[in-house]
Amino acid sequence: MLSILRSLVQEVNSARDLQEALDIIVSRVQKAMGTEVCSVYLLDPASNRYILMATEGLYKDSVGQVSLAYSEGLVGLVGSREEPINLEDAPSHPRYRYFPETGEERFRSFLGVPIIHHRRVLGVLVVQQRESSRCFDEGEEAFLVTVSAQLAGVIAHSEATGVISGLSLTGEEARDVSFGGVPGAPGVAIGTGVVVYPVADLDAVPEKPTEEIDQELELFRSAVDAVREDIERVANRLASQLRPEEQALFDVYLRMLSDEALPGEVVNRIQEGVWAQGALKQVVQQYVRHFEMMDDLYLQERAVDIRDLGRRLLSHLQEGEQKHLEYPERTVLVSEELTPAMLGEVPKGQLVGLVSVKGSSNSHVAILARAMGVPTVMGLVDIPVNQLDGRELVVDGFEGQIFASPSSDLRAFYQAICDEEDELVRGLEALRDKPCETTDGHRVSLLVNTGLMTDVVRSLSHGAEGIGLYRTEVPFMIKDRFPSEQEQREYYREQLEAFAPNPVTMRTLDIGGDKALTYFPIQEENPFLGWRGIRVTLDHPEIFLVQVRAMLKASEGLNNLQIMLPMISNISEVEESLHLVYRVYHEVREEGYDIHMPKVGVMVEVPAAVYQIRELAERVDFLSVGSNDLTQYLLAVDRNNPRVAQLYHSYHPAVLQALVRVAQDAHSVGKPVGICGELAGDPGGALLLMAMGYDSLSMNAASLPKVKSVIRSVDREWAIQLLEDVLLLDSPHVIKSCVDLALRNAGFGRYLRPARTSTAALAEQAVS
């Protein structure tokens, strides 16, 4: 059965369209199970009816003509119950529905299984038999369930391809086709999709020997020179939009092209008698396999860079020019794997959005997108990329969704969001220099999360009172080696000077999990529960000491540095870290630097820390909750995984209860507590956190004006009552709805981001 299933999946995957895929399914399943009938009914989202789409054994004329309401007949019963139904005598069942045009009155035995993809019922797969005495056995039922599960993704992809082309299952025009992924960079963009394909196909290169070794070497070296010039040109084009540390991402490409890197290995293989294209293919595929086998997400992303370079080199070897792309005025760039070089090909001012099927919020493209302020969605599942070229697209970088061929209502809905965002920014400029204080005088500090110098100007213009989280790993991630003490010192000084005299909280190096360094690989089966954060730097004190020394020297004359320790899970980690910080402080003072001892705090992002707040607070100067990681760990959900990202919810009762406890315990021993994460940048979340007693909220710069406006317009008692009300609720979605309703009733509906909801609901909102 396994070989039959494997063959079936391969055959369906190669089908040209949905109808051919369905015809293959019913034909092969009928033959494999030895049944008289196999049929597929798909649920049409537009009409919410099951349509007979393919059959082997019923009358062919009934295909496309027979349809059932959502809960009608045995097919509807299978779909609504979402489980198999196996009957010896189907006509005697009270839910049996007879369709004379199918000729199914001849068949009595019935087995139907639902086709489910990501919790959505796509349809029902049915087999039938003439003999009433035959009941499909457990093995046959298990086989059909397995077939259904294996084919669900294929059907979803094929269905999406058809729908995105403009037609629903009924042949009617389809609009508002949505796909969910992972937010890469916040914001909303509306534009025209431009699909970028690989410039050359390495997999298609044949293996063959050569005797013209010198000629092949010359061809390859010319290709390397040409690609190097291409990358330098792209880097120069983007130079005005990026700071040096971001532009250094292109240096990674150029270093890969150095003689001692990839080209050196290709040259060796050419000298062994392999033609240039074949040698390039062998080396690139070896590199790609090496990186893709790694569990670490960041290192996996480097396979994308290697593959992109290989394709560009192959393109020059084949003397084939890239297809000339026309970039519309509002371009949404789409690709299976977006690379930094692709961004630079779009004329300045025309790139409004990015969509990448592969990749995560940790990829080079996501880092650049956030720096450039381009709304981005990454990691989309089952999206037919080739159907998006030339289509109008809506990119929702807040929620990680895209919409293809939006209706006028949906387009208007999102255009209003874009306009409101622009208008809000302009309208809230007057608040920049005003304190974040409630109407009854309760003061909250609003800080920003940053990692790139491009964030600084935006942060200051939005009235940030300092940095609540400076991600020091960013300068480490964009290099191919550990940055020196002097290089780190320059990075840190730039941030400290920009915000002086306001505080700048620098988190010590936090790698591991979804953040890794190419030159310091961490290979683990479960990196989120492994060697990361403070665990790494304490095991490598030489890294920690150099970093702290650079921070302290950078603070001379400014004295606005605060140091924060990530991923603390026990007291001994704090004590060991403090010992090293004090040691460096005295050493730097002895070197003649006139510095003050900075405040040192810990991040609360591991559940274990939630239950040790008093003990931790007695040893440090402040605490700061990393709500994103704390939420992931409390809920056991990787929010970068599109298959479970919907389970990640900052308003989960467990998360809110933990946050309340942290604030209460910290204040009970007289220590300030802040929070950095998405919840702090959400107006409703900020109100709840303020009511809990958090002293500072740190967020991305774009969220700051809205949060300040809301807090300045309410009194704290109102927020405390709202908090008490929602803590009695047991559903994160109900809690979010209650908070949103309270904000709307208070006149702040314009600050709410679009909720992750159905397109029908969005269109309804747009019309109303």
Automatic annotation (TrEMBL):
Claim: Transport is one of the keywords in the record: yes
Reactions performed catalytically: L-histidyl-[protein] + phosphoenolpyruvate = N(pros)-phospho-L-histidyl-[protein] + pyruvate
Known cofactor(s): Mg(2+)
One GO MF term: phosphoenolpyruvate-protein phosphotransferase activity
Keywords, ordered alphabetically: Cytoplasm, Kinase, Magnesium, Metal-binding, Phosphotransferase system, Sugar transport, Transferase, Transport
EC number(s) on file: 2.7.3.9
Location of the protein in the cell: Cytoplasm
Residues of the GAF domain: 17-165
Main location: cytoplasm
Pfam family, one: PEP-utilisers_N
Family according to the record: Belongs to the PEP-utilizing enzyme family.
NCBIfam families linked: PRK11061.1, PTS_I_fam
PANTHER family according to UniProt: PHOSPHOENOLPYRUVATE-DEPENDENT PHOSPHOTRANSFERASE SYSTEM, PHOSPHOENOLPYRUVATE-PROTEIN PHOSPHOTRANSFERASE
Name of the protein: phosphoenolpyruvate--protein phosphotransferase
